[in-house]
Amino acid sequence: MGKKSLVSIDECSKEYILEILDCARRFEQEPNRKLLEGKVVATLFFEPSTRTRLSFETAVNRLGGRVIGFQDASTTSSTKGETLRDTILMVNNYADLIIMRHYLEGAAKYASEILSIPEFSRGVPVINAGDGANQHPSQTLLDIYSIWKTQGKLTDQVVTIVGDLKYGRAVHSLIAGLWHFNPTFHFIAPNELKLPDEQKSFCDEKGIQYYEHTEFTEEIINRSDILYMTRIQRERFTDMEVYERVKNVYVLKLDMLNGSKDNLRILHPLPRVTEIASDVDSSPKAYFIHQAGNGIFIRQAILCKALGINA
Amino acid sequence: MEQNDSTKQVAAIKNGTVIDHIPPEHLFKIIDILEIGDMDNTVTIGYRLPSGKMGRKGMIKIFDKTEFDQTALEKAALLAPNATVNKIIDYKVSLDKDENGGKPCLPLPEKELRNIVKCTNPRCITNNEPMPTLFTWVDRGDWTIKCEYCGRKIKKENFELK
Ligand SMILES: [Zn+2]
After folding, report:
1. Which of A52, A87, A150, A230 is catalytic?
2. pTM, whole model, 2 decimals?
3. A107 vs B125: CB contact, 8 Å cut-off?
4. CB within 8 A of A254, min separation 6: which ones?
5. How far apart, in Å, are the Cα atoms of A290 and each of A15, A281, A293?
6. Which CATH code is given to the segment(s) B16-93?
């Protein structure tokens, strides 16, 4: 197996996704395996993201690897005007793998290109841990793992996605990752936050069935295998009256689950605000509580895969 | 023929290239893009020449030169996709039809636009690092391109050349 960067979910083949899931399951059974012994992993967080960084660093530590890096661009030379290119080339001399979070969109792709120039590079792969509003592939693979694990399969799932479908990066990536597995989507959003045409034509192109709704009803919940809730952000609205109306409409409450399927599971790309009432937490269907825990195993699998290590 | 008449409006050319039917408002920009100011060749420039089709047009005749930088030509094509390009060899137009039988025009980029257009997304890496941009066509018909780095889609009216 060769080394390979992970920049975007769009580049992940069905085969790659299935291998990652299988590998993650093995890590879930046995998380502490010294597969990265002697390896140095750099976590370059040009913007802070505690949740993502802790998850990746835990994954490296459980694999016996060492972590170097920074978690705030203000403490690095990039504030002194150093280019990303120079930072990457420097770290390329120290580390065996780079995990990068950046506030600029396309930064991870650019870093992976720099590192694939044979004259400069030791062949260090990059894992994109989020580049602005663009891509966050380990998050998407975690969502897919959660679906696979809770449903026992990935194919033919009825996936209902609720909330901000316009700006929600996690939503667009989930569609791009799940299309391989013949899903049926229900998209529930206010008109202001409807799924963009680009994602709809993607579904059309791939022959994926989808339905759009503005009402969040029990009838749709009852048909679903997965209910994927997202946050509606106040700053997306110019009209605060619309925001106030909308934010209370797309809220999941416990009694809305009364007629739902036994296998229904509720996911959320945390953090959540008000879109899931706290009484839902007590339901065995509230999987978002456990979802983040899977992140370690998925990231262990991604790390090994990027380094070409059989795990 | 309009082609011949307009070519005659400026001195005849034995060997070289005639870029014709340039919208006058883009003429000087295209002279810049093709770096004509830096050439040693003789150049005739026609500005606001009368044109049956266009009303007014621009034309550039570059003597004794038929090869140009492809990126520069593609960049110019984004401004003037209908401008014609004729290579003249021994007073004859060497190629008066393109492969589709139409007039040979400035070449629009085939698959990708490499370092030709700026990304309109200020948070795009290409606007924050000394690096080339890269776009691919989403729709060549309606001139929509997509940044390969940040994913931003840009329509023709928002194209800004690098
Ligand atoms: Zn861009």
Report:
1. A52
2. 0.87
3. yes
4. A277, A279, A280, A282, A283
5. 26, 11, 6
6. 3.30.70.140
